[in-house]
Specification:
The complex is a heterodimer of chains A (787) and B (142).
Chain A: E1 15-18, E2 21-27, E3 39-45, E4 48-54, H1 67-70, H2 72-76, E5 86-88, E6 97-99, H3 102-124, E7 132-136, H4 144-154, E8 158-161, H5 171-181, E9 184-187, E10 207-211, H6 215-218, H7 227-234, E11 237-241, H8 247-251, E12 254-256, H9 263-276, H10 282-288, E13 289-290, H11 292-299, H12 304-311, H13 315-327, E14 331-335, H14 337-340, H15 345-358, E15 368-371, H16 390-393, H17 403-406, H18 415-424, E16 432-436, H19 448-455, E17 460-465, H20 470-475, E18 478-481, E19 490-492, E20 498-501, H21 514-525, H22 527-530, H23 536-545, H24 555-561, E21 563-564, H25 567-570, E22 595-596, H26 600-605, H27 624-629, E23 632-636, H28 652-655, E24 662-665, H29 667-673, E25 680-685, E26 688-696, E27 704-707, E28 752-758, H30 767-771
Parallel strand pairs in A: 7-8, 7-16, 10-11, 10-14, 11-12, 13-22, 16-17, 17-18, 23-27, 24-26
Antiparallel strand pairs in A: 1-2, 2-3, 3-4, 5-6, 5-18, 9-15, 19-20, 20-21, 23-28, 25-26, 25-28
Helix pairs in contact in A: 4-21, 5-15, 9-12, 9-13, 9-15, 12-13
Chain B: H1 4-7, H2 13-19, E1 30-34, H3 44-53, E2 62-71, E3 77-85, H4 93-98, H5 103-107, E4 113-117, H6 118-125, E5 132-135
Antiparallel strand pairs in B: 1-4, 1-5, 2-3
The structure holds iron/sulfur cluster (SF4) (3 copies).
One iron/sulfur cluster (SF4) is lined by residues 28, 32, 34, 36-38, 61, 65-66, 68-69, 219 of chain A.
Chain lengths: 787, 142
């Protein structure tokens, strides 16, 4: 009778009625922002959401929820939420707005677009629509919508992350996977099977390596972090690679406390042990890989002693970890963001990928399995590319400078080169920035003050969001109010299963969902195409059917199925079965058909075809002089458990748990600076400074500090100069734009240098008020393209 | 000098505590069993409980307590959390009556919370180390 599930109360229908409630089974995917899509039950009365519970009948989360979904009611009925479209009614930054109708807002957008096209034609000799740039945030249900508005309504090819330098989030790892084996892998936590741990084919990984992420807090890449606890309780052993003592690291069998930015060296050192001690899977490697011999040679350059010195990790621990991983059958790797946030992002990804492959852990139960979007319904950041003519594609900003972008491995334009175009007007200055649910200057923009300054040069900005944000107040002419997931009809096909997102709560004031916004913009700007859809649901049917590549049923059918598990994603060893290649032959989707340890494409593009270590851009060894003045390693962006990036700062039940920007410093540093728990400290380097509240964190590398990201203060003054205090605690006052490795992937968000000192009454001030009042002339160009 | 026995006038503390009766006590039917070895401090139980009880921020029906992170005398890291029900916890009586789980148990991300009859939970508690059993306060308010 312990934890019994009452099947009469928790049904598998898509909707039912009980005790005056309408209960809807749906999945949730933005807002609140999240990489997961857990199942919830929405209990509504007369269209008002009264309560949310996790859906115990959905194998993905099995009833569990994190803070964000539990807090749904406060989230959607928060009075700060945008209620209707706003037009600027004063200077930009004044926070003066007037309420308008959706039609008036669309009229304004249409006029702005005409003006944008005229300027691009007259002043830059272009075609016109390319003057629009759409910015998107990270992987949430606001990826394909901005892309569709941009490409199918405006007809522009310029899609970018919100100034995330060098696309440093999952793009390096995914691109490495795509280049080496044609598909992406994830740790097999049985999440691809509806019967999960009971599945007959699935086996428990003996060892899991949690590499460069804190999944319990971040739920990264469509992976629910707490699944790892399930494994831990089943007896899986853990190796954790992290510079900080995370809770997982404290429980790990081996904790490799790595110096940030040296993951590639560590992987090569482990490969050195695995190869030289003959611990790899010979049969697999001989049958399925290309270029193994060259890796054997390469790893000889990375003996463990040398790697130990580079990584600041004990040599014996590296040897133990390599043996533990290689001898376990199966073993899996759960990798993460910190790999992407270094100039060696691509190189580290390749080296880790090689480990998975040669140890025979690729696409086997309990290893790292190859996955695709459920039913191939894969329209996301690349959605609408077919609407862009080759002539227009050539007008993309910055892509000619990067071979990987040029070859079309990514639908994005490089954010760093977009910033340069905004600053210099070369090849042209974008005139209209469309911001689909992203808040760059508060969150992911590297060197945020530089981005602020450049963005002030842009004539028009339209922001679609839930709240007024620092980005909206600083730049927007028009702000559009967006609906949250519990109010939206949509779907999620990211990995497994295909999920409905069913509108269950009534609509908050005049908010539109991102899908409805695509429809409204489409009907206004591209009636020929959007004329075929009467309702948003018709349009969603078109999306999930994906022109014959997706499912053969309608959105309404999906709503009633709620979840649809795709058997392809459940299948193991797909390369043996001919399931990966279009020609139906065994092998991978690569030119050689093999797993490419040696990358012929890298060779063609002029990159090193094998992984190699590069010292971080600013580091004790590359820039020893700088290190004297700035003797601390500065990392940023470690996740708040239950918060998503810069969201939720309006919500009292979230702020009770995360009241402000709390950084981690080591006990040794605290002692040296005379800092007590809760004191405020400055972090400073040549680019800028920010202040945060100190938490003294045992187990940290003594001269390493961890700054929190995403902090702004909705309770403070919105109008400039204060701008919600967005630059006061901003970790990105110290990071870079324009710095990355030779592949143009990976920026050093997590591996730079700084100094630290106490905030005193004499040195205390608002950085925000300084930065927003600086002259807008001139720009500081930084460009570093690795070695 | 009087002996200890004489000083205590025959009071036998061991016997006294063994037979001690709390006259406010009432037998308890149900409890929360926590496998605290794996509590991650994800806060889900805390907030789920606040939603259930309709509590404002900073008022808790259950709250995690923390020990560590600390390197112990053997050089091993310890970092342990235990969620503790407070006076405001009502045992989710209205939910369990209907056959639902308490809100905290239903949403625990690590799956380490168990609700059920005390005897069964006690049996389960004997299955592994590092479990703690809270008996729920089922007294009706006057
Ligand atoms: S991880 Fe949290 S926010 Fe994301 S869907 Fe699940 S419960 Fe909701
Ligand atoms: S049993 Fe109910 S009231 Fe008690 S702590 Fe859990 S959720 Fe809160
Ligand atoms: S929900 Fe579970 S894992 Fe999370 S803090 Fe509470 S008891 Fe711990």
């Amino acid at each position: 009778m312990i934890n019994e599930l009452n099947k009469d109360l928790y049904k598998t229908d898509w909707r039912w009625y009980e005790d005056g409630y309408e209960v809807t089974r749906t999945s949730v995917w933005t807002g609140p922002g999240c990489h997961n899509g857990c199942g919830v039950l929405a209990y509504t009365k007369d269209g008002t959401l009264e309560r949310v519970e996790g859906d115990p009948n959905f194998a993905y989360n099995q009833g569990r929820l994190c803070l964000r979904c539990i807090n749904m009611v406060e989230q959607i009925y928060n009075h700060d939420r945008m209620k209707w479209p706003l037009l600027l009614d004063g200077e930009k930054g004044s926070n003066k707005w007037k309420r308008v109708t959706w039609d008036e807002a669309l009229d304004f957008i249409e006029e702005a677009f005409q003006d944008c096209c005229r300027i691009i034609r007259d002043e830059f000799g272009g075609i016109g629509p390319e003057g629009v740039v759409a910015l998107s945030g990270t992987g949430r249900n606001a990826m394909w919508q901005g892309a569709m508005v941009l490409r199918t309504a405006f007809g522009s090819p310029n899609m970018s992350f919100g100034f995330l330098s060098a696309d440093s989030c999952y793009q390096p790892r995914m691109t490495a996977n795509l280049l080496q084996e044609g598909d992406c892998w994830i740790l097999d936590n049985a999440q691809l099977h509806p019967d999960r741990y009971n599945n007959a084919e699935w086996v428990k990984p003996e060892v899991v390596v949690v590499w460069a992420n804190q999944p319990l807090a971040s739920n990264p890449d469509g992976f629910m972090g707490h699944w790892l606890i399930d494994l831990m309780r089943m007896g899986t052993k853990f190796i954790v690679v992290d510079p900080a003592l995370t809770w997982l690291a404290s429980k790990a069998d081996i904790w490799l406390q790595i110096r940030p930015g040296t993951d590639c060296a560590l992987a090569l050192g482990m490969l050195n042990v695995i190869i030289n001690e003959d611990l790899y899977d010979h049969e697999w490697t001989e049958t399925w890989t290309y270029g193994f011999d060259s890796l054997v040679e390469r790893v000889q350059e990375y003996p463990v002693d040398k790697v130990a010195e580079i990584c600041w990790v004990d040599a014996q621990l590296i040897i133990d970890a390599a043996r533990m991983y290689a001898k376990a059958k199966p073993a899996g790797i759960q990798w993460g963001l910190a790999i992407d946030m270094q100039i060696s992002a691509m190189e580290a990804s390749n080296a880790i990928d090689d480990m998975v492959a040669i140890c025979g852990n690729l696409d086997v139960p309990g290893g790292n399995v190859l996955v695709r979007y459920a039913y191939n319904s894969s329209k996301k950041y690349g959605a609408g590319l077919e609407f862009i003519s080759p002539e227009m594609l050539d007008r993309r900003i910055g892509t000619t400078q990067s071979p990987i972008h040029k070859a079309g491995y990514t639908p994005f334009i490089p954010p760093d080169l977009l910033l340069e175009a905004m600053e210099t007007g070369v090849p042209y200055r974008p005139q209209l920035i469309w911001v689909e649910q992203t808040n760059p200057i508060a969150n992911m923009a590297g060197d945020a003050p530089r981005v602020y300054k450049a963005w002030k040069n842009i004539k028009y900005t339209i922001v679609a969001d839930y709240y007024l944000t620092p980005t909206a107040v600083a730049f927007a002419d028009c702000v559009l109010p967006m609906a949250m997931s519990i109010e939206r009809n949509s779907y999620r096909s990211w990995w497994q299963p295909l999920r409905t997102i069913t509108a269950s709560a009534g609509r908050y004031y005049e908010c539109k969902s991102d899908e409805e916004l695509v429809m409204a913009m489409g009907k206004r700007f591209n009636p020929e195409f959007y004329g075929q859809f009467e309702t948003t649901e018709d349009f969603l049917t078109w999306m999930i059917q994906d022109e014959g590549n997706g499912v053969d049923y309608t959105f309404q059918d999906l709503r009633e199925k709620v979840y649809d598990w795709w058997d392809w994603n459940e299948t193991y060893r797909k390369y043996e079965k001919g399931l990966l290649r279009e020609d139906g032959n065994p092998g991978f989707v690569t030119a050689t058909g093999l797993f490419e340890i040696y990358s012929p494409l890298f060779d063609v593009w002029g990159f090193d075809p094998l992984p190699h270590h590069m010292e971080p851009y600013e580091s004790p060894y590359r820039t020893p002089e700088l290190y004297k003045e700035y003797p601390l390693i500065y990392t940023s962006g470690h996740r708040h458990i239950g918060l998503f990036h810069s969201e939720h700062r309006q919500l009292p039940h979230m702020r009770q748990i995360h009241p402000t920007a709390i950084c981690d410093i080591s006990p040794e540093l605290a002692e040296e600076l005379g800092v007590l728990e809760g004191d405020w400290v400055w972090f400073e380097n040549p680019r800028g400074k920010c202040k945060q509240k100190a938490h003294i964190a045992p187990g940290l590398i003594p001269n390493l500090v961890r700054a929190r990201h995403g902090w702004w203060f909705p309770e403070e003054e919105a109008a400039e100069p204060h701008l919600y205090g967005v630059f006061d605690c901003n970790a990105n006052n110290l990071t870079t734009m324009g710095v990355y490795g030779p592949t143009h992937y990976g920026a050093p968000y997590k591996s730079t240098l700084c100094k630290c000192y106490k905030v005193t009454p004499e040195n205390d001030h608002s950085e925000s008020e300084l930065i927003t009042t600086q002259p807008l002339t001139g720009f500081h160009f930084t460009r570093f393209e690795g070695v | 000098m009087p002996t200890a026995e004489e000083m205590n006038r025959g009071f036998d503390a061991v016997k006294y505590w063994a037979e001690f009766k709390d006259y406010n006590a009432k037998p308890v039917q149900h409890g929360l069993l926590i496998d605290y070895e794996f509590c991650t401090n994800c806060h889900s139980c805390e907030l789920a409980c606040q939603m259930h009880l309709g509590l404002p921020a900073e008022q808790w029906g259950i709250k995690t307590l923390e020990y560590g992170p600390i390197k112990d005398v053997n050089g091993k890291w310890e970092w342990t959390y235990v969620p503790m029900p407070t006076d405001l916890c009502d045992g989710c009586a209205d939910r369990t009556k209907e056959g639902r789980l308490p809100m905290c148990v239903h949403h625990c991300q690590a799956g380490v919370m168990f609700y059920g009859p005390i005897e069964e939970l006690a049996k389960k508690a004997a299955e592994k180390p590092k479990m703690v059993l809270f008996t729920l306060d089922e007294r009706e308010e006057a």
